[in-house]
């Protein structure tokens, strides 16, 4: 069993419109845009990162906004819900705030003994806020949400699977432990994690497989401290039979990827070097940053990408 994984690192999804996506995560949810860059494989498409002040692993929601992309079809083999942590007593505030911002599919319930507020993103993305006692992570409070209510980072991701058995075994191999079940959902947690500690598995054998599109999660990333730990994880996964990519430099972290038995794409990402490697912390996410291989295309890229504000 591995001991290098420290919880979630980031969740990457797809969207149909960059400006709408940016407004939702900064103005509505109050997160900070910590990086404005481009998709390494499609440099005419933004890659936007949102999180806390410095983009701490475990707080980072990222998006590829593909213009005019059709919506995905929910189903199995995907992350169905991305869940953020908020302080106890904050659900009422968020119910009112999201309603005022025209957010759809608001629904409150309780699961695993915690109050939750479900809501949809601009592309029908599945989200929830969950009240967590004593989450010590510091929130970003400069986008109109005070510290008493602000999002602390991820709490969990919930995966929809036709059969959760093999994915549960993989997560246990990655260091997760089964901690509870509720209404058929199995919850696993990473001991001593970074706060973004939980993965929920929901078995849905009679549901069609998901079709990816706007509003779909592209992949979920797990955090390791550094490249040495990442190489240990890569070797262990390959020795177990998984097909794992070589290490890829993503400028702000190094990444490896592999497909899980349930169909969800997993990434293992390093906490180093971080989002302040090419911008001062006070100005994170302001300038368009390009990977070295696309720097010579800056003029064309800037002409193609629509402004996020205005």
From TrEMBL:
PROSITE patterns in the cross-refs: VOC (PS51819)
Domain (VOC): residue spans on this chain: 7-132, 153-271
TM annotation in the entry: none
Keywords linked to the UniProt accession: Dioxygenase, Oxidoreductase
GO molecular function: dioxygenase activity
Highest taxon above the source species: Bacteria
One Pfam family named in its UniProt record: Glyoxalase
Gene3D superfamilies in UniProt: 2,3-Dihydroxybiphenyl 1,2-Dioxygenase, domain 1
PANTHER family (UniProt xref): RING-CLEAVING DIOXYGENASE MHQE-RELATED
Protein name listed in UniProt: Putative dioxygenase protein
């Amino acid at each position: 069993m591995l001991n290098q994984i420290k919880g979630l690192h980031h969740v990457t999804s797809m969207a149909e419109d960059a400006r709408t996506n940016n407004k939702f995560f900064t103005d509505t949810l109050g997160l900070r845009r910590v990086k404005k860059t481009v998709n390494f494989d499609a440099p005419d498409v933004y890659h936007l990162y949102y999180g806390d002040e410095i983009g701490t692993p475990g707080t980072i929601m990222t998006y590829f906004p593909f213009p005019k992309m059709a919506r995905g079809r929910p189903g199995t083999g995907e992350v169905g819900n991305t869940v953020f942590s908020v302080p106890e007593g904050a659900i009422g505030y968020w119910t009112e705030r999201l309603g005022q911002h025209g957010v759809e599919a608001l629904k409150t319930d309780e699961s695993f003994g915690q109050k939750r507020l479900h809501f949809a993103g601009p592309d029908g993305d599945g989200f929830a806020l969950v009240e967590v006692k004593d989450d010590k992570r510091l929130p970003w409070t400069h986008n109109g949400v005070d510290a008493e209510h602000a999002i602390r980072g991820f709490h969990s991701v919930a995966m929809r699977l036709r059969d959760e058995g093999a994915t549960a075994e993989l997560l246990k191999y990655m260091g997760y432990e089964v901690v509870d079940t509720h209404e058929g959902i199995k919850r696993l947690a990473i001991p001593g994690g970074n706060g973004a500690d939980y993965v929920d598995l929901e078995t849905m054998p009679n549901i069609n497989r998901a079709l990816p599109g706007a509003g779909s999660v592209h992949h979920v990333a797990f955090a390791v401290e550094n490249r040495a730990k990442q190489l240990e994880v890569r070797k262990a996964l390959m020795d177990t039979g998984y097909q794992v990519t070589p290490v890829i430099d993503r400028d702000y972290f190094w990444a490896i990827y592999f497909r899980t038995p349930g169909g969800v794409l997993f990434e293992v990402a390093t906490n180093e070097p971080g989002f302040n490697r090419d911008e001062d912390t006070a100005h994170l996410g302001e300038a368009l940053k390009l990977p070295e291989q696309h720097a010579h295309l800056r003029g064309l890229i800037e002409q193609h990408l629509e402004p996020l504000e205005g």
